[in-house]
Amino acid sequence: MSLFALVENSDRRIHVQVARQIARKILSGELKENQKIPCETELCEAFGVSRTALRESTKLLSAKGLIESKPKVGTRICPRSQWHFLDPQFLDWIQDLEDNKPFLAQFLGLRKAIEPEACALAATNATAEQRKELSKYFQRMTTAANEFDYENWTINDHLFHQTVFLATGNQFYVPFSNILSTIFKQFIDYSAIGGRFCLEEHKAIYDGIMSGNAKQARDASQSLLNDENQTLAKAS
After folding, report:
1. SS3 at position 220
2. Per-residue pLDDT tens for 216-231?
3. How far are the Cα atoms of 50, 106, 232 from residue 174, in angstroms, in the given order?
4. In 3D, which of 112, 108, 116, 109 has the Cα closest to residue 216?
5. Which of 159, 181, 165, 160 is nearest to 126 (CA)?
6. What is the third-level CATH fold of 14-88?
């Protein structure tokens, strides 16, 4: 059985479809670090694409740090240390995996490292308009929790945390509002379904930011991100 499947007609460009298939094999571990991938002729036949399309796909994968091509040597899988984990398209490929919980569990570790300080900064720097936005999203979260509405909880929890990052006043936090928005939403979805809504923890964050109490906001964020509140903690 071929490692890859023929590319289907769709709105997505052919070289992007090819890159997605190869990326999934790498991210899932089916293709190992430093392993050579098949030659151009084999790949073109497996995908049913032209050399031009294949070369565009390998350029895309190279730009994400997943593969490296060398003349007379071939193309190999790069070490994980070179992968561009914060690239939006890379994150989109992670979501395609059948088992992406290990990646999401590692993302929880990143959240633990940066989010409490983001909440503390938001308590100090949030504008009046941003505080209004937080209030709106928290009220919607409260309604969703009371009605056991996971879909609306997920949407508004995402917007709540997105606004927190924007409210830090620090431009280096902005990517965690924009670039990571997709995987962040999926993370919240996994954490909420089948578990608690953690409304009280979010209320403590909200109260800390609204009152300008940086310590309260930081402590509340750390409490929210405790393993006991996160269904993905055991997946790491």
Report:
1. helix
2. 999 999 999 886 666 5
3. 39, 20, 24
4. 116
5. 165
6. Arc Repressor Mutant, subunit A (1.10.10)
pLDDT in tens, 116-166: 999 999 999 999 999 999 999 999 999 999 998 988 988 898 899 999 999
The C-alpha atoms of residue 70 and residue 53 are separated, in whole angstroms, by 18
Residue 41 corresponds to which tokens in the numbers above?
């002729």
Distance of CA 184 to the CA centre of its chain: 5
For residue 127, the Cα-to-chain-centroid distance in whole angstroms is 27
Q: Which secondary-structure segment (H or E) carries 110?
A: helix 101-125
Domain boundaries, the chain: 14-88, 100-235
Task: Please tell me what DSSP assigns to residue 81.
Answer: G
Q: Does domain 100-235 have CATH number 1.10.3720.10?
A: no
| pTM listed for this prediction | 0.75
